């Protein structure tokens, strides 16, 4: 099935002869260079061409998806019309299977937030490789960047396909992948989570999620020491409600008896466990009882209180 139904207009590269300086003997002492305004116009034309290629590529992908859907509907209709359930020809099955086995590419976008840089690059490299061509890779890289990230690399479209793609990756890495910036961004986000008051399962789950994300990211970047600092651990400990702080102290005491200090991962595991407990059916029942200051749910009377509604839990 052909996927090339269009040809883009060819915009010539800027000719080296326009920027060449001739000797005085050759041109009688005069120096000729390309008019800067003309050079700027050619650059703008090439940039417009790149944007047009990106839009055409998007339309091509959408058209391919529509064709696959139509083929599948035709296949189902054909199969249903056979009284003896005879499958279509082998080539037809192979074509349909090959088209349907192609997973839909879910590409995340990047707006210049350093916290999302590494996940974006890994996702992009998983979805595109050199087999699609450097021009296509560069166009898609520009397409899936927004804001300051796109502004950083859009001029790379003026370079050759391979040089432009590699330069775009280099510029993104220089601008958004500095590890110390990424590390501090993750830690600051985690430390700025408000302290949990009372029994709040939703905020406890959020705290657990942010701690696990931060721990996983910094571990992959080999910055675990920043997580294991006394300041970081104490700050996260104080975000727990008082009753969980007491339980956490018991866990830390047991760990210290083994001959080592408590680490961030220990606190992270403790918060995850408490979050799981708080969000179970009976955990929510206890929390509801504490919030209403009615711990007696009718058990002492030998029956369930009429106000207890199991469907609401």
UniProtKB/TrEMBL annotation:
It comes from the Eukaryota. Residues 1-12 have a biased composition (Basic and acidic residues). The keyword Ion transport does not apply. Residues 1-26 are annotated as: Disordered. Residues 40-67 form a coiled coil. Keywords: Coiled coil. InterPro entries: DUF1759 (IPR005312). The keyword Phosphoprotein does not apply. PANTHER family: PHD-TYPE DOMAIN-CONTAINING PROTEIN. This is Protein disulfide-isomerase tmx3. The gene is TMX3_6.
């Amino acid at each position: 099935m052909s996927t090339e139904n269009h040809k883009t207009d060819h915009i010539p590269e800027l000719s080296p002869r326009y920027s060449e300086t001739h000797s005085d003997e050759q041109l009688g002492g005069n120096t000729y260079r390309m008019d800067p305004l003309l050079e700027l116009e050619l650059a703008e034309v090439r940039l417009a061409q790149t944007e047009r290629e990106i839009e055409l590529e998007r339309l091509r992908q959408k058209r391919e998806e529509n064709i696959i859907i139509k083929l599948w509907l035709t296949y189902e209709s054909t199969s249903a019309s056979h009284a003896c359930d005879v499958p279509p020809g082998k080539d037809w099955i192979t074509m349909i299977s090959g088209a349907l086995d192609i997973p839909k590419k879910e590409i995340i976008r990047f707006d210049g937030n350093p916290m999302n840089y590494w996940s974006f690059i890994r996702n992009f490299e998983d979805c595109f490789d050199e087999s699609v061509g450097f021009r296509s890779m560069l166009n898609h890289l520009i397409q899936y960047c927004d804001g300051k990230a796109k502004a950083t690399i859009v001029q790379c479209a003026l370079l050759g396909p391979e040089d432009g793609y590699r330069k775009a990756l280099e510029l993104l890495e220089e601008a958004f992948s500095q590890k110390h910036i990424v590390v501090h961004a993750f830690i600051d986000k985690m430390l700025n989570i408000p302290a949990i008051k009372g029994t709040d399962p939703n905020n406890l789950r959020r705290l657990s999620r942010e701690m696990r994300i931060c721990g996983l990211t910094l571990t992959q970047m080999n910055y675990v020491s920043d997580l294991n600092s006394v300041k970081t651990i104490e700050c996260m400990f104080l975000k727990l409600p008082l009753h969980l702080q007491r339980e956490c102290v018991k866990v830390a005491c047991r760990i210290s008896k083994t001959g080592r200090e408590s680490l961030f991962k220990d606190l992270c595991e403790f918060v995850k466990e408490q979050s799981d407990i708080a969000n179970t059916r009976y955990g929510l029942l206890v929390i509801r009882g504490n919030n209403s200051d009615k711990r007696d749910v009718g058990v002492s009377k030998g029956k369930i209180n009429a106000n207890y509604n199991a469907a609401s839990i």
